[in-house]
Design brief:
Rossmann fold, alpha/beta, Arc Repressor Mutant, subunit A, 3-stranded antiparallel sheet, globular
Length: about 280
């Protein structure tokens, strides 16, 4: 396969440092709608030349609109692409995943996983489990799990969303409704007692609700920034959630309301980095 073909058909590789910078650009634009090149360069402590390259790539991907002297938010794309979320709250997600893995029974078991960086961390924590079947609509999770010989992986069909790499729509919904799983692990963009479990895209929300419907237990995994927040589309009512696993940065009042709604809340303390543990 030629290099030219790969360049045209595959997503560009993004370094961890650049990925975090691009994520912060989108977050700043989401907060302020538009920013000048100088303001962004100052906020991010980078040169304007570096920033121009980042803005050009994000504009090409349809994540923002470049303007004369800066950039503005693209209203139709409020969510940050999954490949730029990998460095966001990574340590918290690792702790959340470890606690979630402890909630999954050993032995033969079927588990559904939605897309997302936190659910991907959960999948990595399960890679040595024997007799486990993973059902997912996430291309990234399915590809990673397929390399682990102890796991059986079932990938749903559907239309792939560019920003999340999740297969959605009637094909994916039908697949989830045709399979019974012991536990569904749901990533989210927001969870609150009144708003339920939410995401940015209504089609993705419908697909994930089909996952919830045929699960014996529903576990939501969310870092502290998602607690008490509600986004556009509801994936599940709070009454459909059995467990929430989050970290100690979460709003305590929002957690109290979620617990009062009947959800078992598990809060992991952020003590030392996983790389420092023995």
């Amino acid at each position: 396969m030629s290099k030219q073909y790969l360049d045209q058909s595959s997503p560009r590789a993004v370094s961890s440092k650049r990925s975090e910078r691009m994520r912060r650009i989108l977050s700043l634009l989401h907060e302020h709608t538009s920013r000048s090149l100088g303001d962004l360069a100052r906020d991010l402590s980078v040169s304007e030349a570096t920033l121009r390259r980042d803005l050009a790539e994000l504009d090409e991907q349809g994540q923002l609109v470049r303007t004369h002297g800066g950039a503005r938010e693209r209203n139709s794309q409020p969510e940050i692409p999954v490949r730029l979320r990998n460095t966001s709250y990574k340590r918290e997600k690792q702790y959340i995943a470890r606690r979630t893995v402890d909630l999954i029974p050993t032995g033969p078991y079927a588990l559904a996983l939605s897309g997302g960086t936190t659910t991907a961390e959960v999948a990595r924590g399960l890679r040595h489990r024997a007799g486990l079947t993973i059902v997912t609509n996430s291309l990234t999770i399915a590809m990673e799990c397929a390399t682990w010989p102890r796991l059986k992986v079932i990938m749903t069909g559907g239309v792939v969303r560019q920003s999340s790499f999740e297969a959605v729509g009637s094909l994916s919904e039908g697949a989830f409704r045709g399979i019974n799983v012991g536990t569904c692990i749901l990533g989210t963009d927001g969870i609150s007692a009144t708003g339920g479990v939410t995401t940015h895209d209504e089609t993705e929300a419908r697909t994930n609700h089909a996952m919830v419907e045929n699960a014996g237990r529903v576990i939501v995994v969310a870092d502290g920034s998602k607690i008490g927040r509600a986004t556009l589309a509801k994936m599940a009512d709070i009454s459909e959630v059995d467990d929430l696993v989050t970290d100690s940065s979460a709003d305590p009042e929002a957690l109290k309301l979620i617990a009062a709604a009947g959800v078992e809340v598990h809060v992991v303390e952020m003590a030392i980095s996983p790389v420092d543990e023995p």
